[in-house]
Specification:
Elements: E1 4-10, H1 14-26, E2 32-35, E3 40-42, H2 47-51, E4 61-63, E5 73-75, E6 79-83, E7 88-91, E8 96-104, E9 109-110, H3 118-121, E10 127-128, H4 136-144, E11 149-154, H5 165-180, E12 186-192, H6 201-214, E13 217-220, E14 222-228, E15 233-238, E16 244-248, E17 251-254, E18 258-259, H7 262-265, E19 291-293, H8 306-324, E20 337-344, E21 347-353, H9 372-388
Parallel strand pairs: 1-2, 1-8, 2-5, 8-19, 10-17, 11-12, 11-17, 12-13
Antiparallel strand pairs: 3-4, 6-7, 7-8, 9-18, 14-15, 15-16, 20-21
Helix pairs in contact: 1-8
């Protein structure tokens, strides 16, 4: 087993595989290792549609081995310690692996235990979440069998991957309830710590109209702090007044709190919020110039999405290879991210924007409008582009 790599990549999700594939395409002779314990790779954007009954869970899963680029050393282990002063990492299995250059792509950590009652209640008693392959099928079960009452949808007061996902499933549930004939005896409540439904004004206006049309009760500045599964109650804290309130529900879709992986928080690479520090343009660590970061684990002021990774990966690869040659790291990431906001079966708004929350759209039409063509993009085109383009270093 090789215990040193010229380039060592931590994480074999969207970010790590995209970076590895692009590096391999740029230089077939590079010595690359990738540390990733999972045997399966998931296209997580599909989970919203799994939770709405459009796809089965297995449609989102492929073998990890199918996407490890040729001649990349796959280290099937978990990172337990990052020691940039020693240019080394230690794995859960006890291996010490050194590197010349490090790429941090460890994703985001889901903190199921941060809300009392969530970990023990998930998948039962109407408590569902699309943020787990193991539990996403229960979301559709809860929606499909819903007979009326209060359907509650929550957002945590933390960074999350795919910030639009907590509302997408709500819009689809509304449609499902109408099809099932129970919408007239259903109250849909959306509780969020944010001040508005969306940060970018152009798309916010559309989504506010969707909320009005669907008669959804929105409650902003509300942070879920506890679930009481047996009583079917959710406890919220008002972030402005710090007062607590209780909402009774018949089903609740919970977006769990998330944070940087503990292994990053506990390392010298972390910024003040626990994420891997990185220059927001070059993706290079400001204190350890032999370290680069991308994806959800990177401390970048943009939404954590696969679309963001697609734009980050070529910048990182360009700058990493330039740094290896002693040249300037002159490629710049502008904060581009994308949020395909499904607003119902057959309808979608494609939000694309940059660090300044300015729209940065790909198509020659107004993407803030709900369109069936964008639904086809979400359901038919983007999965194929992911599996056969992005993960192969082609997009």
């Amino acid at each position: 087993m090789q215990d040193h790599h010229r380039i060592l990549i931590l994480g074999g999700g969207s970010a790590g595989i995209s970076a590895a594939a692009r590096l391999r395409r740029a230089d077939a002779g590079l010595d690359i290792g990738i540390v990733e314990p999972s045997e399966s790779h998931f296209y997580q954007p599909l989970w919203t549609l799994v939770g709405a009954g459009v796809f089965r869970p297995e449609a989102s899963r492929r073998p990890e081995a199918d996407f490890i680029p040729p001649r990349v050393d796959w280290i099937r282990d978990r990172v337990s310690s990052i020691r940039p002063d020693e240019k080394a990492v230690v794995t859960a299995g006890g291996r010490r692996i050194t590197y010349d250059w490090l790429v941090v792509a460890l994703g985001i950590q889901i903190d199921w235990t941060a809300i009392p009652g969530l970990a023990e209640g998930i998948g039962t008693r109407g408590i569902c979440s699309n943020y787990s392959f193991e539990h996403v099928a229960y979301t559709w079960e809860a929606i499909r069998t819903f007979k009326g009452g209060t359907a509650l949808f929550t957002v945590p007061n933390t960074a999350v991957k795919c910030g639009g996902a907590p509302q997408k499933i709500m819009y689809l549930a509304d449609d499902a309830f109408r099809r099932q004939g129970v919408r007239d005896r259903t109250k849909i409540v959306f509780a969020s710590p944010q001040k508005a439904i969306f940060a970018v004004e152009k798309y916010r206006k559309t989504l506010e109209a969707v909320i009005t049309r669907k008669k959804i009760d929105t409650r902003f500045r509300q942070n879920l702090v506890e679930l009481r599964p047996d009583a079917r109650e959710a406890v919220f804290e008002n972030l402005d007044t710090h007062e607590r309130s209780v909402v009774a529900y018949d089903m609740v879709h919970v977006t769990p709190p998330m944070s940087a992986p503990d292994v990053i928080k506990q390392s010298p690479l972390a910024n003040e919020h626990g994420w891997c520090e990185a220059d927001k343009r070059t993706l290079q660590h400001p204190r350890f110039p032999d370290v680069f970061a991308l994806g959800d684990a990177a401390g970048l002021p943009t939404s954590k999405t696969g679309a963001a990774i697609r734009k980050q990966a070529p910048v990182l690869v360009h700058n990493l290879l330039a740094a290896m040659r002693g040249g300037p790291t002159d490629a710049a990431y502008d904060g581009y991210t994308s949020c395909p906001v499904v607003t119902g079966y057959g309808k979608m708004v494609l939000a694309e924007f940059d660090y300044d929350n300015k729209p940065k759209e790909s198509f020659p039409f107004d993407q803030s409008k709900e369109r069936y063509s964008m639904w086809l993009l979400k359901t038919q085109v983007l999965p194929r582009l992911y599996w056969y383009g992005m993960l192969r270093g082609r997009l």
